[in-house]
Structure formats: C-alpha cells, structure tokens
Amino acid sequence: MAKRALITGITGQDGAYLSKLLLEKGYEVHGGVRRIGVISTGRLDELDVTDSLTLHDFELLEESNIRRVLEKIAPDEVYNLAAQSFVAVSFEQPIYTSNADALGVARMLECIRSLGGKSRFYQASTSEMFGKVQAIPQSEATPFYPRSPYGVAKLFGHWSTVNYRESFDMYACSGILFNHESPLRGKEFVTRKITLAFARIAAGQQDVLELGNLDAKRDWGYAADYVEGMWRMLQQEEADDYVLATGETHSIRSFVEAAGRYFGWEFGWKGEGANEIGIERKSGRTLVRVNPAFYRPAEVDLLIGDPAKAENKLGWKRSVDLSGLVELMCDADMKRTKGGPIAF
Ligand code: NDP
Ligand code: GDP
Q1: Is residue 342 part of a domain?
Q2: 13 CB less than 6 Å from ligand 1?
Q3: Is the pTM above the cut of 0.90?
Q4: Is residue 158 part of a domain?
Q5: From 114, 167, 248, 270, which residue has the greatest number of CB atoms within 10 Å?
Q6: Element (H or E) spanning 193, and its range?
Q7: Do 225 and 211 sit in the same domain of this protein?
Q8: Closest ligand to the CA of 69
Q9: Index of the ligand 2 atom closest to the CA of residue 214
C-alpha cells in the first residue's frame, strides 16, 4: 500500500519540491493549506502537482484543527514545513512568529502523541538557530545562539522535537537546514530579490535594486536537493537530527556579482556602509543601492554548515553549487518577466 504523507506549509517553496518528490516515490500526498483569502497554489502549479494532491484546511495556531487533520489522514510521515519563515518579519511580529514557529511545533507533536505517536515527524529547523556562531563551520554539535525572534522560536521547535523523541519514543527528526533557494523562493528573501530585480532591470521594468547588509555570508544550497535530505531522515532505523548544507559560504555582495555576470554586468563598488552603491562598469549605471531600511536589528554575520553527518549516514549530497543556483534562478526570472504577473 502507498505510504501516506502530510506536508504542512505545502504551498511554500519546500512544500512544492517535497510534494513532487513524494509523488514520484509513489506516496499519497496530503497538504495543509491555510485560509487567508485565496489559497496560493502557484508553486504547486508550476511543478504541475496540484491535481495529484489532497489539500486540507490547516492552521498551526488551531490545535483542534491540527488534530482533526491528523486523525483523518493517519499519515505515516508528517513534514512540518509550515512557519512564519521570514527573519525580518519576526522582529515586527515576534508574538505571532512564536505562536506559529514555536507553539505550532508543540501542538503538532502533542497531537501526534495523543493519537498514538505512530506518524514519523520531520521538523523544519534552521541554521538561524546558530545565529551568532559559536564555531566555524556549524554542525549538529555546535551550541546555538539565535539572533532573531524567528531563530528563538525555531529553537523551541527543535528542542521540542528532540524532547518528544526522548520522552515518548516517537520517531521525530529535526533537520537543521542552511539557507536553500530556488526559482520558487519567496520574493522577499535576498537571493530571489536579487535575481528578480536584475531580470526586471534587464527588461527595462525596474531601475535599481535596494539591499541592506551586503557583507553577511550565507551557505546557500538548492531547495530540491534539500527536500531529498528531509525524506532520507525519515527513512532511517533510528530518528536523529542532521545538518544539511553545502559547506561553502558566500557574501550577499558575491551573490549580486554572480547574478550580475549572468546578465553580462560587472560591478564596481563605491562608498561605504549605508552610502554604498554598485555601479555597472560598462554603462556606468547605478544598479544597486544600500538602503538601511533592510538592515536587521541583530544580524547573523556568517553561516557555513558542515554536512558530514548527513553525507555519511544518509548518503545525502547537494548536487548544485552557487553558480548553478544563480543560473537556475536567473533563467526562471528572465522567463517570468516576459510573461504576465508573477504569482510568487
Ligand atoms: P515558505 O515561507 O516558502 O513556506 C511557508 C509555508 O508555511 C507556506 O505554505 C505558508 O502558507 C505556511 N504557513 C505560514 N504560516 C502558517 C500558519 N500559521 N498555519 C499554517 N501554514 C502556515 O518557506 P520555505 O518553504 O522556504 O521553508 C519551509 C520551512 O523550512 C519553514 O518552516 C522554514 O522556516 C524552514 N526553513 C527554511 C529554510 C530556507 O532556506 N528556505 C532554511 C531553514 C529552515 P501560505 O502559502 O499561506 O503563506
Ligand atoms: P535569512 O538568512 O533567513 O535571513 O535569509 P534572507 O535571504 O532573508 O537574508 C539573508 C541575508 O541577506 C541576511 O543577512 C540579510 O541581512 C541580508 N540582506 C541584505 N539585504 C537584504 C534584503 O534586501 N532583503 C533580505 N531579505 N535580506 C537582505
């Protein structure tokens, strides 16, 4: 019989790629979607999976709703991807972020436990929990030091997952995933903001790209690789926690430069801090400008993960490097700017 999976946050970037992966593996895939006006199935439509899924109204803040959905589906595997996932918003909405990203995980775990604890559980944890990093690179053994309400809330979710595994013998895994991007990444995240803006500038639809801190460094992988790692975590004999990362780090400035090269632009940088601008050398046009409105109240300066445990125990390895990722994202945004309104 086909395995049954529930993916919360199925309309997000990872939800879309994971749906496709599980369908290809023969799963019966159920997804939790929230009712905030129109349900945004744009990403699922782009991967052509919407009609193969069963969607359920789902809200992380509503425990009785979570319980009913779990009871009805009785999933073999639950992937808890739903979250308020944007760090910058978490500084403006810390209470809501905690409710969804921290208590939401406790609600999920508690419902699974009270229904017999049989569903295997994946929690979408994050490198943001390392925050002000205590070691370089960061592994499963690195102490946490979150720097945002998002990181703090996700840390509660991580420890709750570990605690339910240890207390109630549940198969519960926390995947500590470093940033992963794709053409389906939300427009507010820096990589997609850059590739979309450059595609628009190239098409004459935008003049300049405004960014915040250009010197923060991230370990960016490709989302489709990372959902494969999530699935592998739930196929082991014993539940455990794993870092998924590329083991490389690049600054926002280098991502800008790499995306620029795709469009045939070479950048020269002028000024400092909030006054810095990026000038395209051949045309002399200013295409990038720093706007302090995009600075964070507390920054995570450097993330670089050590994926050795996932590589050794799960046989997982990323397949796309930074230049491959930039190309995938720029290609997709170039095509989109030529079409109608961009759905996500
Ligand atoms: P997205 O922001 O693209 O997707 C988040 C999903 O959660 C959306 O489907 C959204 O629904 C849903 N959601 C938000 N709030 C609620 C709520 N209160 N109740 C029910 N559903 C809700 O995130 P990603 O796909 O990029 O990430 C997936 C998960 O992995 C998230 O938990 C994220 O925090 C975590 N993560 C992501 C990383 C990354 O680099 N992408 C790195 C490490 C962890 P809607 O469509 O209605 O908005
Ligand atoms: P995060 O790692 O989950 O916070 O992912 P983001 O893509 O939102 O941000 C990655 C890094 O890019 C952070 O250090 C931000 O401060 C930095 N950054 C610089 N300019 C921007 C911007 O305009 N938007 C976003 N989202 N991040 C920016």
Answers
A1: no
A2: yes
A3: yes
A4: yes
A5: 248
A6: helix 190-202
A7: no
A8: 1
A9: 19
| Cα(114)–Cα(187) distance, integer angstroms | 38
Q: List pLDDT tens digits, range 196-234.
A: 999 999 999 999 999 999 999 999 999 999 999 999 999
Cα 313 to middle of ligand 1, angstroms: 26
Give yes or no for residue 213 CB within 6 A of ligand 2. Answer: yes
CB of 180 closer than 6 angstroms to any ligand 2 atom: no
Q: Which amino acid is at 250?
A: H
* CA 51-52-54 angle, 5° bins: 90
Cα(56) to ligand 2 centroid in Å equals: 32
Domain hosting 35: range is 4-182+220-248+302-319
In this predicted structure, the answer to whether residue 116 has a pLDDT above a threshold of 80 is yes
Q: Which ligand is nearest to the CA of 18?
A: 1
Mean pLDDT across 155-174: 98
Our measurement of the distance from residue 275's CA atom to the centroid of its chain's CA atoms, rounded to an integer in Å, reads 30
308 band by pLDDT with thresholds 50, 70 and 90: very high
The 3-state DSSP class for residue 125 equals strand
279's enclosing H/E stretch is strand 277-280
189 C-alpha to ligand 2 centroid (Å): 6
Query: Given a cut of 80, is residue 1 above it in pLDDT?
Result: yes
Distance from the alpha carbon of residue 94 to the mean position of ligand 2, in angstroms: 17
Average pLDDT score over residue span 97-105: 98
User: For position 9, which CATH number holds?
Assistant: 3.40.50.720
